[in-house]
Amino acid sequence: MIREKLKTGIPALDEMLDGGLIPGRPYIVSGTSGTGKTTLAMRFLLEGAKNGEHVLYVALDEPPNEVKANLRSFGWDLSGVTVFDATLDIMSYDKTPVRDVSSERKPVPMKDLGDSIRKTPDKGPADMTVNTLQEMLKQEMRLKKYTRVVIDSTTSIERFYIRTSEEYVLMQSFFRLMTDLGVTSILTVQLPEVAPPTPESRMARAEIRLHRWFDGKGMNRGITIEKYRGSAHDDRLRQFKITDQGIEIRLESTKKSREPKKTPPVELEGAQHPAIAPPATSQPVAAPSSDEVAPPPPPPQDQAPESASPPRGGEGA
Fold first, then answer.
1. Of 33, 100, 283, 299, which sits most exposed with the smallest number of CB within 10 A?
2. Considering the domain boundaries, does residue 161 fall inside one?
3. Are 85 and 70 within 8 A, CB to CB?
4. Number of domains the chain is built from
5. Which CATH number belongs to the domain containing residue 61 in this structure?
6. What value does the mean pLDDT take over residues 25-44?
């Protein structure tokens, strides 16, 4: 039996997810740079903090003080969020003993973060790998029972912290850890403009993907549920905006959208219905006599005339 689902803090997204996220599983929020991944993930943590849950934000991309400053415009109360700074220090090429980052840094309340970036220690940078990050999470779960964790982002783990060719195996181990800890986690994944499937998308229990594109008027944003194992979900693209309140998704009623549209009856008596009326002509057309042969029916609409130029992508394209 599936336990009651966890709310994401975005009501329209919860509706797309058929009520929210199944507890105790790892999920990903993917998208290109600037699509709103961190905003969505932080809203997920704040929903838990509002309900008295212990929530943890692990920063690997941006320094957490900058994340805090960027979210300030929403007016959110971040005091209930604990943050672990896993961003890289300035690299040192001195031959110094490797020190585990889990013993060098500790999670702190986000409200206690200063406005300045954490400085690199004089004794050199601490070592950050997938193993050290896993050890930190296990230690913290022993001290405080977190129910929600955000890893922002796994892309940095792959690019900076994985030092072997076994990328898929190491990420699989990381996802397994999040499941073993029994925590509901969101891992953000930064995608290039054109992206093949990632290891995270294969292993995550659900993938929420954020999109953005330009038209003649400006930039548009959209959200899709690429998959959701064990749950029904909305499979359509929904547009959204990032406002001073956070992420707002345009979502009409799912029940209404699934009802078949009723077509009004076509009145055939007297004048023909406009939808099936023949094209207007400048002169009346005489009805064919019984001796005349009726003209052949027009070709199907999807059959291009012989004189048409070949479509793009064909020979010679």
1. 283
2. yes
3. no
4. 1
5. 3.40.50.300
6. 95
